[in-house]
Amino acid sequence: MALFRLEDRFRDLRRSPRFEVHYLGQIDLGRTEAPVNCIICDISATGAKLTVGAHEVPDEFILVLRRRCRVIRRIDGQVGVKFVQS
């Protein structure tokens, strides 16, 4: 009997491809508490995998993506950016 990793089982159920990233993010708890830092490990159009350590997170929250950006184009009120290393 072949052993499968849990992550492999979920990969078959995903609606859109995931891309491995290592972005700093914050979980906005929406209360008077300070946001919780996290690492965004992978991301897709429909979801992401976060590393939160020992922090408790509610069932719903706002994920704030924090990436340093450099403007590479400005056209008609839109801005194109490139992610840069911190």
Plain-language structure description:
The protein has 86 residues and is mostly beta strands. Helix content is 7%, strand content 47%. The protein has 1 helix and 6 strands; from the N terminus they run αββββββ. It has one helix at residues 6-11, and strands spanning 19-28, 36-43, 48-51, 62-66, 69-75, 78-83. It has a 4-stranded antiparallel beta sheet with strand order 3-2-1-4, with no helix packed on it. A two-stranded antiparallel sheet has the order 5-6. A hairpin with a 7-residue loop joins strand 1 and strand 2 (36-43). The longest helix has 6 residues, at 6-11. It is globular and about 40 Å long. The termini are far apart.
Lay out the secondary structure.
Layout: H1 6-11, E1 19-28, E2 36-43, E3 48-51, E4 62-66, E5 69-75, E6 78-83
Antiparallel strand pairs: 1-2, 1-4, 2-3, 5-6
